[in-house]
Amino acid sequence: MRDLDLDMFYDKEKKEYYCIRCQYRGTEEDVLAKNEIARFRYGAIGRRFKEEDFETFE
Amino acid sequence: MDQFIVNIIHRPEMVPEYAEKVTGHGQTEDIGRKALLTESLDIFKTQQECAHKNGLKTTIEMTYASLFNDEAVALAKEHHEKYGDEIGLTLLGLPCKEFREKYKTKDFCIWMFSMEDKKAIVQDVFGKFYECFGFYPESTGSYYMDAELTNYIKEQYPSVKCAVATCWEEGPKAYHTCNNSWYTFMDGGPWAPWIPSKQNTHAPAANEAEDSGIVAIPHLSRDLIACYDGNGSNFGTHPQNVLRGMIYDSQTWEYPYLYNLIDQFRYQAKFNNGYAYNMMFVGPGWMNKMGRWEAPYELLLKSYEDGCAYYGKLKKEGKLIDMTMSEFADFYRRKKSYTEPECALWRDILYGSDKQVFWYCDPYMRVGMNMDQGGAIVDLRPYVAKLNWPVGIGTPHIQDASYPFLIQEKYRAGYFTHYAGEGTVRSAKICHNGEEVDLCLCRTKAHFSQNGSDRILTLDPVDIEFTDLTVKLQTVITFTEGTGGIKFERRVLEMSDPDAEVSINEYMVGCYGTTEYTEDMSGLTLSAEKGGEKTELSYEYKCREFALKEADRVSCTLPPVETKVSFACEGRDKEGYFKEGYAFSPMFTIGYNGRLCDKEVFTTWLSLEKAD
User: Which fold has domain B364-610?
Assistant: First the structure.
């Protein structure tokens, strides 16, 4: 999961991505799946705001 | 009628620092690699095409490296003739064979060189520009332009009238984002255009004498909540930064957030006398043919095309005026006066909350207020001090170009601390029968209005509930142009027991610095004044307090940032006080206690002055 602006590296023998700073390791599929999870914080990721929304609240 | 002005800026960077790392990964560094230079120029051409096909003109900020490339120079001339693009000159993009041979360094950030080298580099770059084009530029810029650099450029090349001069909130949090390898800090500046003072780039000029001679624009137009609360780099009208933040649907490649950002910037015309500004400045390295992180080149390209298409659509609808940087400088000087503030009432458009903040910037101060914390001041920068803060090799601040804060809720804890002590914030507590409620825990919303030279935030009333009493309290905050003061009025609209009384504690917990780490507080002086008499205390971390009934003023003088911050008050049974901190809580507190009944008002003024 890419939380910070860190690059992961690929070990072609083990066919896995790994982070050199933490303990994460995983396949490309797992990295992409975790990237989806990282989007959890963006509650309005799909919302299109209109002008009247900028000062209207739930 | 509202005017929404957009600057689209492109630079043929030739060797973006991250592109060399990416395209050259696993190879010995070679900034002259033909493949790299060719790709960089191709990407610049693509960016230009994206803008032009949508009817938009650009400012082409030539880089030093590009001035040695005949094709880049010819392209700039052609696009100037054909599309009305401005040919400007950036001080980004210095790295090239010629630069490295002369300066023998891999350093590439103009603002961090020694002053002697800054001057030499400026002469080289501007001289080469003249050689290529036969005139000197009207716009320039860099990621940061320290005041000494700007003053030198204006002295040597008076044609310059506009510059990219800082990037919003690029301090320690950006450093953390980039695995602690982004060795340049620049927190504390304006988020929208301003006229920098000669003394300090972040601090707007208060008058003609302070005027640096340029109109400055930020390097990026950024989300005024996400970039302050978050890691900073992913949240701006820079399409690939949005991708970097993964703020898109990975299946559909849609990113409504990008358009929401543009639209919320447009909306700021409501708070700035009908004027709003936005800019897009994307270097070619962000459209690397190998892609960046998870985003393939096709997505990087699509996002740029879509961004330009949206600006083009707004222009066709008469909702946007595209200008070059030099055109904008002329417009800005006609439009704004020195003391007129920049205001932003901004809501969360990313995380799905109702969080709302207000940012205010004028020659005296930059203020950030959080309505989720009852309108508390959570960021405060004393521009009035106009700090002399040289940056670069040979100065006391080689990398740290931030403008110091007095309050910064992220770096210095804010309202809530996990352990002992207090964090920096400006708020108030209401107390009744041994119970206490801080307005930081009373979420509200703000409504902006203007009355002459006053900018007024009227907050929705909040209900403060004690065991045996409910108080409906409304806060009204007034910024008066040209005064360096902020008035807070706390109005009791209603009490469940109309005969009850509450006490109020208006306070500010402050310190100073630019990072998360405490500075030496010795040398600060706390004082309370009444009728010409003054009681002072020199800060020694001894946790001492002093209170004075009917005090005229309480204050803290901070010599390291040449600032005096003070409170004055009008309210029943007012008592001014100050508190010294201690080693585990290295802050100071100034404030006023008082009492309030139903329908009464308690008023305090926070003022900032330059201190000798």
Answer: Beta-galactosidase; Chain A, domain 5 (2.70.98)
